[in-house]
Design brief:
Number of helices: 11
Helix content: 25-40%
Structural class: alpha+beta
Shape: elongated
Strand order of the largest sheet: 11-12-13-17-16-15-14
Number of strands: 18
Strand content: 15-25%
Largest sheet: 7 strands, antiparallel
Order of helices and strands: EEHHHEHHEHHHHEEEEEEEEEHEEEEHE
Amino acid sequence: MYCQKCANLLLDNAKSCDKCGTQVMVGIVTEASGSAPAQTSVPNLILPASILRRLSNLFIDRFASYIPFLIYLGYIVYSPGFVKSEYHSYFYYGALISYFGYYLICESIWQQTLGKVITKTKVVDRNGNKPDFLRILGRSFARYIPFEPFSYLFNGYPVGWHDSLSKTLVVPVHLTPEDVQKMNFEEIKKLKSNNAFPVIIIGVFGILIAIAVIGVLSSVVLVSLSSARGKALDATYKVNLANFMTQAEQYNVSHGSYSGLCKDKDVLLSLVYFPKSSDINKPKFTCNDSEKEYAASAPKKDGGEWCIDNKKSQPAKIEKVLGASTSCSEVLTSANNLSWLTYYSINDGFSVLFPGQPLLDSKDNLPITNTSATYNLHSYTSVDKNVSFLVNTFIYSENLNITDPDKILGQYLKSVTNSKDSKLISSNYTYQDSNRALDFSVQIADEIVKGRYILTSKSIYLVMMDYFPEDYNQKIYDDYINSFKILKHES
């Protein structure tokens, strides 16, 4: 006979279990109608694995099932094609497959998981034999029923839904098929372990703690992986910058100068697509050129940048950002110590230095009075402290009549000075490359708006700063305005 609490094999005529100390029940009291209670002897029941063993299995197997999952996650994150935005999908499906596969493989082949090996239990069918594959498959699927762990509260002695639905049992390893066949399942269902409810409640909290621990361990793994990926990106940046240096020298030979290098279509596309990004309007490089020199940079993993110019034979580390400089040794240093980045808008055809990633406000297909033509107005804004850096693009569906470019630019300037609180401080016509431009400075209430309009055949660009007089820095303004470059020219 066996102990009803821990299923330990008992000696004949034993009065208590030598393992857990539970007294042996030799009978149960029944109530007969119209008579006094009587003592009736019944044989001791052969029982499945106890609740404590089942809970031990749950804890051990929960951790063990995540080992292949963490290996899988590490492989995915380290792989070159890993996309960070899809991490949650990798995590969810990886955990699902790992948990399901762990039980399916272990129980269908060995009848035991790691937890069952430790607690000396095994999975059998109702005849005590090894379950077939379909039963184990159904048993594994049943584990995903919502609140399935709580089924132990309602099924009497520790038999969960994944046991009852698949008609399987978890029993001590020493039970033979003959022992299992002698089990009285009707009597077993009536039994309630005295400590089942509090143990299950403790088990639920234990599972929550286990999940939290796994989350912390996953975070540690991801931090390590992030560091490794950062080093890989550093190596990628250096290789690409070294290749860029070769392209720059070839460009200089064929054109006689470096001027226009960073606007060259082939060079630009080669830079835009490293590193691979789902948004090509957010590249991670800077490129500046002049007639006699150039410089290009990309961010370092631990701060600063990798930089290459016509004076260096390989990428070098710089502590500041390159900004608008054409030399790695003369990097941008502003009064506000801004973290400049070069922003490229491929759709609107420009690049410019911003002190941070700009916000974009788009209004498309706006009508033009007395014509069927339309235009798109895109506003890019980046703010640092009390200074706003803005680029507005007016992209027209048809070519503009630019026979009198000064008149067109003057009309656009009026749109800035037409409020009663505005006052024109200065204006000056100039050129940006071969395009007509208009520099201006306007006071609006207590603020100053200073910038430049640039006219092309189909577009008008407005590059400006909005600031309070006490926040003005001439070097920052010059670096910002002079960094603006038109990447494509309409015919």
